[in-house]
Each structure stands twice: as structure tokens, then as C-alpha cells.
Design a protein that fits this description.
Length: about 350
Amino acid sequence: MRRAVDIVDGLGVDELMLAAIDATRSTYPHPNPRVGAVIVTPDHTVLSLGVCHGDGLAHAETTALDALSDSSLAKGATAIVTLEPCSHQGRTPPCTDALINAGIAKVVVGAVDPDPRVSGSGIRRLSEAGVEVLTGIANEAVIAADPAYFHHRQFGIPRVTLKMAATLDGQAAALDGTSQWITSAEARDDVHRLRSENDAVLVGAGTVIADDPSLTVRRDGYEGPQPLPIVVVGNREIPRESKVMERDPLMYGLETQGSVDLAEMLKDLGSRGIMSVLVEGGPTLARSFVTSGTVDSFVWYVAAKLAAGTGFPAIAGRFESIAEALDLIVVDVQMVGPDIRVTAVPTEGSA
Ligand SMILES: NC(=O)c1ccc[n+]([C@@H]2O[C@H](COP(=O)([O-])OP(=O)(O)OC[C@H]3O[C@@H](n4cnc5c(N)ncnc54)[C@H](OP(=O)(O)O)[C@@H]3O)[C@@H](O)[C@H]2O)c1
């Protein structure tokens, strides 16, 4: 954020940008991006703050303009916007035009929009209208606040997070199929938080049959949308009375009767506007995802428990030689109640 302090008149633009990013954290606009906007006077007195709350609702810039106590305050003001304002007519009018028509003199952009319908054209439109534009002052922070949006727009497929809960010695379930509960109530609540951050939650037939999960977010005070349930099946019948079936899940594998090509499935999910998927299946599905190189992030709950024997290891299949191991970069380690949560990403080229 040093560059922002260097290039922007006066102090505080970096903090204002972070405040705008922070304001987006509790919003659920997917398949649109999380965007926040702050309108300030030239000496950085805050006039208003806006976010886009949901798909099809008013964008952050319009919300911030509407929140001004007097619309004339926009004349000569600065808008600090986390993402490049859109310049195309979607379900809402272009934000560039709303800012220009309101008389905003300067726009500070956190990150350029990777969406090809916008990417640079919003900035161009503002500049051509005589608005001063500063861009890309908080790229990393903006991407970190909504990684799925950037991933989806860049690659056309959802960002995949694989979650697994295992004993300290790596067992995901006992031989009799029981795995409830390996981890603590705190860790399970944390999984519900993860669900709330993803557009979809995906399991394999084995998990539906063994655990009968509903795959919903159940957390105190949670009012956001429920993730779309997705089930991957091979040859087995899924019981009709399963809780997840009541939620009309997206099913893959019914026609192929055997093996689902996960890369193709992700392309299909991407085309449906699904930007993030949490894989919560068992060891077989985890193996399919890991070997297909489609996992972007691993979230591993290491329980304060020893299986002290072999049941179902967290990932199925054989580990023949050390050269087969996937190298990871651990990006975060946290205690969650009595358990440990490890977040890791594949090293470049290992996925
Ligand atoms: N500790 C944890 O975090 C955790 C999480 C979930 C489940 N579990 C436990 O894991 C056990 C279930 O393990 P599991 O490995 O059977 O569950 P799973 O991985 O969720 O489901 C496996 C099944 O999914 C289908 N499948 C997976 N990949 C496929 C692909 N690429 N194409 C087509 N079908 C595919 C196959 O269905 P077909 O059999 O129809 O071919 C496969 O047998 C249970 O004991 C459960 O309690 C533990």
C-alpha cells in the first residue's frame, strides 16, 4: 500500500481503500464481484460508503452516490473504488456514467477488473470524460478479498478449495465408515464459515450415503445465501430420501456411469457462473481432485485425536514413491478450538 500514499494527494487513501475492501466482506454478490466505494472531499473527509449487496442489486458506486446527504456534494469529490467501475450496460446502468454525471472529479481504483467486458474500458471512459483516474493501488488486497471472482474471470472455472478433516495420524474415517465427529464443534463451525464463503459445496456419492449431509450453512446470525449442493456419482444409486436430494443438487456422472472428468465439470460450473467450489467429499473424491490437478487451495483440519490404526486415510489410493508427493506452500496455520487448521496451496507447476 506504500505506492498509494506516494501517488495520491494527502494521506489516508490507503486506509480508505482498506475500509472499502473491509465493507465488502459480508456481501454476497456472486456472480458479480465484491465491490466497495467511498466518496470523500478533496481533503479526504468521508461523505459516504457503498457496497454491492447482491446479484442484480445496485453497484457500490451508485449506492455510495445515493447515500450522499446532498447529491451536489459529489461535484469535485473523489471516489475510492475497490474495483474498476463498470462501463457496460448490464442489469444496472454503467457506474462510470453515474460517477461522471454526478460530477466526481477523481476516481481511485483498487484493482483493474479482469472481466473482459470491463477490463480497462471503465478507466478509459472516465479518463475520456475528464475524470482523473489512479489505478491498481491495492491489487493484492482486492484480489485477496474476493479471490474466486478474479480466478473465475481469468480462467473461466471456479476456484476449488478442498477441505478435509483427519486425525493427527491422517485418518478421515474409521473402517466402519464413521467419521462424525473427528473434529471439534469449533472446527465444524469453521467449516460452516467456509461453506458460507463458497458458491457451491461438492461431495461424492460415498459421503452422501455414509453421512447424509445437507451441505447447508448453519451458523448463528448467518443470513447469506446457501451454497449450491453438487454431488458426483459413479455407479451407485443415491437414496432419494437423502437430505441433499431435497435441495435439488446439481448431479454429475449420472450419464457417464463411471468416471466424471473433473476438469470438464469445472468448465461447466464456470459457464453456470459458479465462481468457487468447496470440495467436502471423502477420500475417493479427494484423490480424484488431487490427481486431476484441479485444487487451488487445501484446508485441512487436523484433529487432536489419534486413530492409532488405519481406517480410511484422508486421501485414497497408494503412495508408491516419495517423488509422487505434491509440494505445497502452507499459507496459514490456526488453532480452531482444540484442533489445527492448515491452509496450503500447491506450489507453482505442481497442481
Ligand atoms: N473426514 C472428512 O473430512 C470426511 C469428509 C467426507 C466424508 N468422510 C468419510 O468418508 C467416507 C466416504 O468416503 P468416500 O471416499 O466413499 O466418499 P466420497 O469421496 O465423497 O465419494 C466417493 C464416491 O464418489 C464418486 N466419485 C468420486 N470421484 C468420482 C469421479 N471422478 N467420477 C465419478 N464418480 C466419482 C464415486 O461414486 P460411486 O461409488 O457411485 O462410483 C465414489 O465411490 C465416509 O466414511 C465418510 O464419513 C470424511
